[in-house]
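Hi U.,

Before I forget, here's the chain from the pilot set. I'm dumping it here mostly so it's searchable later in email.
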Amino acid sequence: MITTLFALFATLLPAAQDQTQEQPPSDEQIRAAWSYLLPDEQREVSQWFTAETEYLQTAQKRLIDYVISGETRDRGTWPSPEPLSWFDPEVHAPNQPIKRKLLDEDSRKAKAVHQEIKGRMPQDPLVRAWDYDWTTGNLIQVGDETDPAAIFENGMMGLPPRTDLAEALLLRRLDDESQRETLKAFHHIYTDRSGNAYPGVTLYDAWCSGRVLEMPDVDNLGLYHVLFDDWKSYKAPVPESKHDKLYGKIGDVFLEAKHHRQLLEAITVNYIRGNAIPTNVYTPNALAFNALWQEYEGDPEAFAKELPKPDKWDKYMKDLVKKTKKKDFRDMGANRVAWFEGERWQVKAKLIWVMQQFEAFDRDSLPDPPKNK
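Structure:
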């Protein structure tokens, strides 16, 4: 089935049909035209655009449909994200029972720490309604899949509706759950030594940031207790002479989980996106991941079988770099990326065409809303 699917690369038209027969508008013009549509018009455009993309006969669309069709559970039954919690000082650091206080996310302090930790990390441009929960293996709804603004922003990148759903399901199929307990431990909310808890920032975010941050004993001991089930070796306050050993043990476990998660995320965003991917440490491997997807004929199960165990990550990446030096392998990846770049244009062209049917590009201001009859 997958082989047949990828035969599309040889049979589909190589370029989008230009429905306007004119020079396409610039991104600035498209965004201006969108702003001149009334809210009801924007919703109609997003619905029409969604319907139009369902008829696209592209490899991108076929792969999205293939992944989604493999999930039998109704997506309306997936849970909402659980609110973040912090490690309880009374449990993990009873000698330092500093109470935790959740800051207002709009406060200056919360914004500064959010920027310090997450603002420096590469952000995925895809606007998501669905995401993968690394701590449970569930899909979680994080937005409205019918939101016109989200559909428009993703359409501007040439990514059709349900791209986020397909990627979340793909991560679920690739994840072997080996790092679930570790990722669950690091999913606690980040706090400082004064007891401030920072909304939307997890210990995983803090450790990924590479920044020198306050790490209170309650968080480090909470991680250590959960990861190693050892409640005797360290007690709060942890003397400075023991910091390196404690942080080192936690860091070794974290690194394995980080490699696992970030590798799968990088593989997933290279499934159908072309160049519409976040810039991160795996960006230089984009051609290699596309070449591997081509080798595995777009089959997630085939790819998953070849993924490295935690202690083999370094060798896996070194072998991949060696493989990428081969011209045929690089060309296979480059051709796949180029193909999806062309297909992204087909999606964006649909968005432009639908907006033209509303004469959005003929406006220079927002019209008055229709009067109620």
